[in-house]
Amino acid sequence: MVQSAVLGFPRIGPNRELKKATEAYWNGKTSAEDLLKVGKEIREQNWKLQKEAGVDIIASNDFSFYDQVLDLSVLFNVIPERYTKYQLPQLDVLFAMGRGLQRKATDSEPAVDVTALEMVKWFDSNYHYVRPTFGKNLSFKLNGQKPVDEFLEAKALGIQTRPVLVGPVSYLYLGKADKDNLELDPISLLDQLLPLYTEILQKLAAAGATEVQLDEPTLVLDLPANVQAAVKKAYTYFGQQSNLPKITLASYFGTVVPNLESLKNLPVSGFHFDFVRAPEQFNDVLAAIGQNQTLSVGIVDGRNIWKNNFAKSSSFVQQAIAKLGAERVIVATSSSLLHTPVDLENESKLDAELKNYFSFATQKLGEVVTIAKNVSGQDVSAALQANASAITARANSTFINDQTVKDRVSSIDAKMSTRAAPFPQRLAEQQPVFNLPLFPTTTIGSFPQTKDIRINRNKFNKGQLSAEEYEKFINSEIERVIRFQEEIDLDVLVHGEPERNDMVQYFGEQLKGYAFTTNGWVQSYGSRYVRPPIIVGDLSRPKAMSVKESVYAQSITKKHVKGMLTGPITCLRWSFPRDDIDQQTQAYQLALALRDEVNDLEAAGIKIIQVDEPAIREGLPLRAGAERSAYQVWAAEAFRVATSGVSNKTQIHSHFCYSDLDPNHIKALDADVVSIEFSKKDDANYIAEFKDYPNHIGLGLFDIHSPRVPSTQEFITKIETILKTYPAEKFWVNPDCGLKTRGWDETRESLTHMVEAAKYFRNQYQK
């Protein structure tokens, strides 16, 4: 009989229990024991849910209080010295590495002031991992045995699990050398790391684990020869060790074919591949699998929420069975279900027709089980019939098609995606309009979303506040933000976005073609969860979305206020997209809707308009080649379609964060000013890459995902480093990202220090 497998399950809890418990611990309201108890409860609930659904192979060690890669760094003692000197408990070390830590001395505890490690996107997803950082004084050793402890937890419940760890090659390759050790190639550390992997695997075997899952998602990247050789070396090494569980080597998010030679003849028990993202690799990987190795067929989408097509998936799996035999085939999720909401049954307000098209993590458990039963010859006819009806109903749904939108997309031409003049001419026309000083200061958009804002938004949504009462409240919050920015003397202001629940959801709720969940939360990083809206049909803008708030903000200040929008690629990437049309078409539909909004903002007197694209790098195909080149063209064009309808005097800004960015890709957007996350970068070469960028740029100076407050001198030091490479006349001063998740006290201090540093350099350059 064909088995079913799930590579990982969301760890946030069905009602965001982990977020609430974690933030309560950070705020000193609960103890570490309280937090650990919640984590244990979530793990138990997840394992039991999968067992009851009939899943054969259930993952353990897929839980984390912050990030699974960061967990490995702590486990293997890859902890930079700045975190070890404070003698913090291990849980606090984990959080300090993830989000930084700053606290004053008390009678019982010393003062702590430490920045977070760099955080970057997990491949092309909206999940962020904490990048391992390898310093000169690194000493690998095991700190505890988290994978073993969680395996034993499940075992005590009567549930046999398959522990999952990020594999050694991916762990090293996704890391970086510390700034004091830049000559290091992390892959060179493999020989030191493999004994620790062996030790933890042997401990798992001794605890009763018969199989482990080692994730090597880097196999879908363009790997240099030494990394491909490292894959062969690592798994050959494991094959030579004794008392290890069987190893399933798993890869996902793309095709492994260009790296397939490194997988041939490896002494592993089986492989997992993602056939949702890369079905074209099927014949190649089948030819490379050894006679006794299993194939885990990733056929249920771990990244999207659309109901699986059972007939199509079963047919695909049957091909594998025909080649390998049923006993060597496993039906699985394409990747961990970390990237999907927990349970569709929590959505009581979704349109019943639309709800029938969706499948969240809990429902996907039933999908892998049903497909496995179907290809094993068991009677699941009722499930197949219901599934076929849903697939047909969606294809014929009136929610989907809008001919007016299709016609408008087909009318896009080069003129629509080209500004009226090149940047130098635009700059010459903009300078007398804005008359900004050297080192102009601004923020990225959002200001703290206080408890009061959330309470009033909730009241309005429940009908407990009238539209007039809510607008009055929002205007009072906008005025508060404007007056604060004037007080600290920022140069270009924002309205603070108090009316917005999320930078994508807010606009999606006002666009035709979107659907929304109530509890469809997905972890983005740490305790930051998002509710991605769902693109269900052709997209259009029925009316203006942000003009009213921007116009009000501009009316109460003499300084320029930026209109704030989310760009077409970010709206696409941070939604669950349609899977029945290509993403390029969806991006152009969004671009046209946003073009209308940009033009309306300009017509209403807003002269600086920021269209954020933090996800544009995230959407880049993982491998070089025709698909990546095409994406770079159409993604940039979609941005320009949204922003090119304005006059030369209107200044277009954009923002990017937490991605390794290509200056040429940013240049293709032709924004007048861009801001880029920089606070966690410690490589001077990163600044040098932007030295010849022709337009203006703001390199983010402080980490808004950390409560830590940088001093004025720290800002000055950071700017001094930048100015060694980057010209002062093109440099803007700003934070890394929006301030939504921060408190007002730390926001006030950080921005005040940032403005003081900018003024220091203005004085220096005037002298």
Describe what this molecule looks like in 3D.
The protein is of the alpha/beta class and 767 residues long. 41% of the residues lie in helices and 13% in strands. The mean pLDDT is 95. The chain has an 8-stranded parallel beta barrel, surrounded by 6 helices. Strands 19-20-21-22-23-24 form a 6-stranded parallel beta sheet. Among the domains are: 291 residues, Alpha-Beta Barrel (TIM Barrel); 242 residues, Alpha-Beta Barrel (TIM Barrel), CATH 3.20.20.210. The protein is globular and about 75 Å long. Helix 6 runs parallel beside helix 8, helix 15 packs across helix 22 and helix 22 packs parallel to helix 23. It has 27 helices and 24 strands.
Structural class: alpha/beta
Overall morphology: globular
Strand line-up of the largest beta sheet: 1-2-8-10-11-12-13-14
- The counted number of beta strands is 24
Mean pLDDT: 95
* Rg value: 26 Å
Low-confidence segments, ≥5 residues, pLDDT <50? none
Distance between the termini: 80 Å
Tell me the major beta sheet. Answer: 8 strands, parallel, barrel
Helix content: 40-55%
GO molecular function: 5-methyltetrahydropteroyltriglutamate-homocysteine S-methyltransferase activity; zinc ion binding
Cofactor: Zn(2+)
Pathway: Amino-acid biosynthesis; L-methionine biosynthesis via de novo pathway; L-methionine from L-homocysteine (MetE route): step 1/1
InterPro entries: Cbl-indep_Met_Synth_N, Cobalamin-indep_Met_synthase, Met_Synth_C/arc, UROD/MetE-like_sf
